[in-house]
Structure formats: C-alpha cells, structure tokens
C-alpha cells in the first residue's frame, strides 16, 4: 500500500521563473526508508514540503498534479489535517521547537489533535523512550544542545505515530556522532513501528546503508528511483557529484559500488583487494595512530619560528559557568591550511572567536601576524547592503569568483546558499585579500592585511559540488586558513593539517592523512573502508593504495 | 531569567496554584499602603524566592527594579504639590516652577516605589517558578491562540537575543567602517522575519492550524498544590480584610499618618507566615 504518491506534480514558488518540482511522479510504500538525493536546489525540500502540505498551502505558488498522503489528497486537506498522518522535521532545530520543555513539545501535536490526556501522556512516553530522551522530558528546551534539540523535534514529529515522517537534512547541524545516532534512531523507528521515512540528505555515505530506496532529483525531476546499490551504479555514470567516496573507490577498481563501509570492505575482500580480518572486529591493516597525548595533556609542538596565528595556553572560563578552553596551545604557519575538528561543544567556535578577537582569553595569549578574517556560520548575518557590489571590494569579489556584471547589481539575499557564503567570505577578507602577512612586519603594516582566514562550519547544508568549490577557493588563498568543521571529507579536500579538539584542548594534531585515518568518526569513508591503510583519505588516494597492494601481491 | 524546573515546593505545585500564589502576593502589594505591611509583603516575596531556590534570579530582577523605584520616589517628590512638611525648598526650577519638597510627597513616592519594586519581584518569582507550558495548558481552554502566542514570545526571546549577538559578532568581523544603524536594523528585521516564517511553518506541521479545544486534564492534587492554593487564599483574605477593615491605615496627605500598632504588626506577621508556611513542607519536591 502506498503511503505517499506524487502524480505528475509540477510546482513553482511565487515569483520564481523555473519550477522547483517538474512533473514528479513518485510512489512510496508503507514501511520504506527512502533517501532523497540531489544537489542544492534540485527540489528535495520542495518534495518534502509538498508531502507535508506546506506546498502549496503555506508557500502559495502554482501547483499542478496530485499528492496523496495516507489516502488524503493534499489539495483537499490542509497542513493541520495532514499533520495527523505526516510528521515533519526541518534542518534548524532552533526554530521548530516551540514549547518550553521537551515534555510539552512532544505533547503539543497530540494536544492539537484533541487527543485525551491519557493518549497524550502515552504518546509522549513512547516517543521519548523510542528516541532515548526520557531523561530530557522535564528539561527546558532552551538549555538543550543541538543534537538533543533535534531529537526533541524528531520526538514531536513521531509522537502520535504518524504513517509518514519526512526529514529535511536533519543531520546538517549535528556533529558526526549525533548525526549517526539520529540516522540509527530513524532506522530503529522504521523497523520497530513500520513508520515510513523519507529523508533528504547531502551526506549520502551517512545514510545509504540504512536506506531501502533512493530517489535522486535533478532540476526538480525524478532522475533515479532505485535501491541504494542501483542508485550508486546510476550515479557513477549519470551524476558523479552524488557518488559517495566509497562508491567512487569501488568504481575506480572496477567493483560494483555498494553502500556502507562494511559492504564496501566485503566487496574489496571478495576481489582480493583487502586482506581478510585477522580477528573479529579488528582490521588486518593496522590503522596508523595520530599523535594523541596523555589525558588532559596538550600536543607539544615545537614552537614555529614564524607563526601566522598562535594560541599560547589559552583558557576561556565562563563566569559561573563551564570552562570552554583549557590551556589550548596551537601555532599555525603562514599559508598553512588547518582543519579544526571535534564534537559539538569541544571549543572549536570559541577558539576561532578568540583568533578574531571577538572573545578575550581569561588566561593565556593569542597572537596573529596580521588581521584575522572570521566567517561565522550564517552568511546572512554579514549581508546588509542592497547590491553585491556594495558589500565587498572588487578585489575581494574577484578572489571569491563573484566579480563582474552578472553579480554586481544583484541583491545579496537573492544569491544561492553557496554564493552567499562566498560573498560573506569576500566581505570578511576586505581589501587584505591575497596578501599573506609577513612575519616581523610592523603593527601598521599588519593593519588590514589578512594573515589568517577562519571559517566556522562553512559546509552546513552544502552539497558535494559546492563543498568542492569552497575547498578549491580556500586552497587558492595566500593567507593561512583555519576551518572548524565536522566534515572529514571536506577537511581531506582542503587541509594540510588537522587539529582534533576535545574538552577545550587539542588531543591530536598532525598531517591530514595521519589524523583522519586513525579513527571512526573523524575519518573519511575511504579511510574507514581501507582501515587507514597508506593514509589514503580520498578515493584517488585509495586507488593508489589498492594498486600498490595488488602489485605487491602479483610480485609475491 | 526563565523558568527552570527545580526541587522546591513552589516548583512542585501545579501551575494554577503557583500562579494564584504569585498573584495573591501581587494583590497584597497593590492593596496595602502602610509601609510596615507593604514591607512585610516585600519580605515575603523575597523569602519565597529563596525558599523556591530562585533567590539569585529574583535578586537580579531587584537590582534592575531599584533604579525604577528610586525614579518614582524622585519624580513624586518633585512634582507633587501636596503635603505640609517642607524638607527642602528648591525655589523656581525650569519646567517645574516653584518647587518645595515635602516629607509627605517623598514618603508617598517611596510607598509607590516600594510597591513597583515588590510587583517586579512578584513577576520575577512567577517567571522563574511557574512552568509556562502548564500555564499555556491552563489558558488554552479559554483562548488557545493567545496563550500560545504569549508562550512563543517567551520562548523566542532567548533565540532572538542569540540572533542579535550573532549579527553583532558578524558585523564586528567586517573590516573598515562599521555599518550604520539603519543598515543593521534592516538586516536584523530580515533575520527576524526569516525566523518568524520558520516558526510558523513548524507550528503548521505540528497541527496548530486545526488545534482543538483540549479536554480537561484531571490530575490529582498534590500536597503542594493544596498548600499554595490555601496560602494564596489566606494572603488575599488577609490583605483584602485589612484594607476593608482599615486595619493597616496609611495617609500621606495632607500630613503623614502611618501608625504602627498591634493590628498593623499582626497583619504584617500574618502575611509573612501565610506566604511562607507552604515552604515548610519539603516532601515530594525532588524532580
């Protein structure tokens, strides 16, 4: 039985010239877990919003075709009525949690439906237990972390056991651990209660292993609707930007791509490209260890004689609150590209704010060889003028690829997500773009010159193509670059060095190939498949390692 | 300053009882003018805040309320032409004209200031000790949408404060001349509108558009529900009785009369005892 049916749906947002959905026809059966894939602007969010009735009831616009959810035609039933059968979760947990406590948040949709107090109480308990948030029920929502808030919002979407749950990039604001936990919870809910789940996600490597089906959208059209391994086959030929790193690696060695690290390893072993594991749960290829210090310690690096940015035993202690940074010591050389990684709350953003002078250390010292340009998470916060040309200098716009008449007169808020990010980068770079600070120069000479460019989580909600563009842009800058990110694939694409933060201090610091091959959460998919062999991070590196292994076996 | 669940008798009481208790204290502050009785209400509110474990939050509110109270004293002393006991002659002042400061006007200003101060403390006690979601549930049977709007406004304040802080930080990262206030205001407005749109969409998909009048929730009354409801009734009866029976007389004009006799002391002590008795029973307050 179909829970969701799209029948030749074409939809155009008010004021838009091109349709966001173009003759989309999709059928999703009860109990399926379906992943929606596609580049930014391909229509994934619109499809989900059409399933929940927000399109066209909330957004307006021109709608043709038919969407039926659990037997209800969305043209005849409003969003409120459809809320009884569709649970919806958006990207930003801050704006979808509306009540003061988790318990009230979970009860809210059930109370809106006029359920009896006992049904509400039971629905709240069941949703809380299913998502492991029973201990959070009486916590104020204003005090929850991003991951907890997202789980509370998911609980509200699941309370009342809707037939269908639609999720729009629910992991984009979460660290890898919280993201993986959320995907695991979704799979469990899907298996336990037969709830149909439709999930839009950019980081496909994270969720393809849990999916029953993948629907790929290109320019609002359904380009592929297949099982995950068939989708990866299709992507290898028709949409390489949707290929996962693991699938790219397998394709490169002539093996049929499969989703998930475990299956990819098995496929390589079948081809004789990876040795069999020696013992249960262990890898026969020893993983190189990043330089990890003793508990509470700091990686001791020989002080670089010329530093673009230097943190010396920096502490940040909140008045009547926790300690965010605990004696962090870090030195970045001119022109070096460093990825700052760690779970949510590890102190990454605070460290960047100290670098840019937005915060002062309670102890310790921060020194930079010139101006520090900091791009915070939301590029919209930087946009205050009426045209792109007014926002930044021509040199800076040139550096980020937004120069020329095609952009000059456009309103900054009309740009796409990736373009806004580049414009915000141009704004913070100012006139000092491209000029790496020379150590030893005088204070006046340093004024306005960019010594370090810092970016805080720049890839949130970005598709793979845009991430690649940003990585290329960062590699092209003369200044040192320090990027806080949760995305190991992005770190592998732009960084020379990775610093892993935990509890306010670096716990691992080394070349990108060393740190990102030494674990599970902070490792690329290629590194996880190959068990860290040869420090390979990308499919191309992985291919080289496998070819070497193959050649060695042939010689033997 | 927001609600945070704590282990206290007031937090353990249902929102209806806790709400009535805070309103009763506010009613007492509004109906009594005798400085001793009004002072007793202020003490009761302060002690209740300490008993509820929200002393530091209410102290913060008191620090903010103090300048307001002082302003009221000053303004009343300067503008009131009543009272017979002149304590300072300021002569002719611009705008105010001939100004004499009298003991009566100053004292009455102090009473008004103390009343405002006490009402702010009552508000702070309510904000920190009464669960807004339970209040919403109370009022949604009467006017659901208005109650939800009020709750959302409370919930969105910290979110918007964080947005404003983010916007300020982003502007500090811009090299060169800082943007004008108008430009900043425009950017902030755009951000708020974006937030409002997202929240509206979230409300829609949670079924707000078809919200039904919820059925009555029969929850058994706990000892703390009963204690605070009884305290609220006692405080209201005592304050109203004292006012109607003229047990706590006070007249500021034309000459000051604020007797401190047995009835005033009795009412004052009675108010404090009634207000604080519910805090004596601390069984079943753990969350």
- Name the largest protein-protein interface in this structure: A-B, 63 and 56 residues
> Number of DSSP strands of chain A?
19
CATH superfamily of the domain at 309-512 in chain A: P-loop containing nucleotide triphosphate hydrolases
Query: How many DSSP H or I helices of chain B?
Result: 9
Radius of gyration of chain B, in angstroms, nearest whole number = 24 Å
Task: Give a verbal description of the structure.
Chain A has 556 residues and is of the alpha/beta class. Among the domains of chain A are: 244-278 and 524-556, no CATH class; 309-512, Rossmann fold (3-Layer(aba) Sandwich). Chain A contains 22 helices and 19 strands. In chain A, the strands form four sheets. A six-stranded mixed sheet of chain A has the order 6-7-8-3-9-10, with helices on both faces. A six-stranded mixed sheet of chain A has the order 15-16-17-13-18-19, with helices on both faces. A four-stranded antiparallel sheet of chain A has the order 2-1-4-5. The termini of chain A are far apart. Mean pLDDT of chain A is 86; it is low at 280-303 and 434-445. With 287 residues, chain B is mainly alpha-helical. Chain B has a domain at 9-131 and 225-280. In chain B, 67% of the residues lie in helices and 5% in strands. Chain B is built from nine helices and two strands; from the N terminus they run ααααββααααα. Chain B has helices at 9-12, 15-31, 35-51, 55-79, 103-129, 132-172, 181-205, 223-244, 262-276; strands at 86-93, 97-102. Chain B has a two-stranded antiparallel ribbon with strand order 1-2. In chain B, strand 1 and strand 2 (97-102) form a beta hairpin. In chain B, helix 2 (15-31) packs parallel to helix 8 (223-244). The relative contact order of chain B is 0.20. At the A-B interface, helix 3, strand 6, helix 4 and strand 15 of A face helix 6 and helix 7 of B.
